[in-house]
Structure prediction request, 239 residues.
Amino acid sequence: MKRVYLDTIDSTNKWAKEHISDLEDKTVVYTYNQTAGRGRLDRKWNNIGTDNIYASIILKPSSTMKGVYSSLTQYLSVVLAKTFEEYGVIPKIKWPNDIQVNGKKISGILAEAVNNDRYLEGIVLGFGVNLNSSKEILDKINQPATSLNIETGIRIDKEEFLKKVFDRFCLLYDRFIEDGFLLIKEDYIKRASTLNKKVSVKVFDKIVTGNAIDITDDGALKIVDENNKEQILLMGDIL
Ligand code: BTN
Prediction:
């Protein structure tokens, strides 16, 4: 994986989108000092210090990639979850792609597509990982959050962690864009915290409430809503 290190940047996703035409497939842009990070649902991603990771992977489309766009974030969430496991913690994936440890968020993913006229120029798969932070800093975030050093009791080497993520991402990526979500379905479901629970999911400006009963072969969430009707949600945010 080709790497671009930025000393300080407002947002690696924003930078990657602006420079996408000059960046090769499977390039990663990363920093340890992101000053205006963005999260899903127009939220911000806090800068919790320079011993944490803020990164964006640039993926360029190929003929086989089309069918897997919607589950690229799930692919990355499995990659991240397995990396956390190497450190002895038990991560859970909150559909579609939040990673939590002991019910607190440790990593988030934001995928953004870049279109040029009517063509897809690429996908920017941004992720932030809380590696080394203090409870005092994390308590100021507006949702329960933790970091790998808090969960393991040891300081985490950020270069080593990044290398593990990139190596693991590349390991199955080519097969993933051929085979799609099915390749990782078992690995995903094993770690999913969302199933067999009542959930409220924000899908654009609608909120759907029901019991989460399954993850489909495409990585979508299947729920039975309050009218006993099955609904397949391809994207959304669990509230
Ligand atoms: C979320 O959980 O809401 C997604 C958070 C994604 C944050 C990462 S940090 C690196 C990249 N650059 C950004 O501005 N956001 C993503």
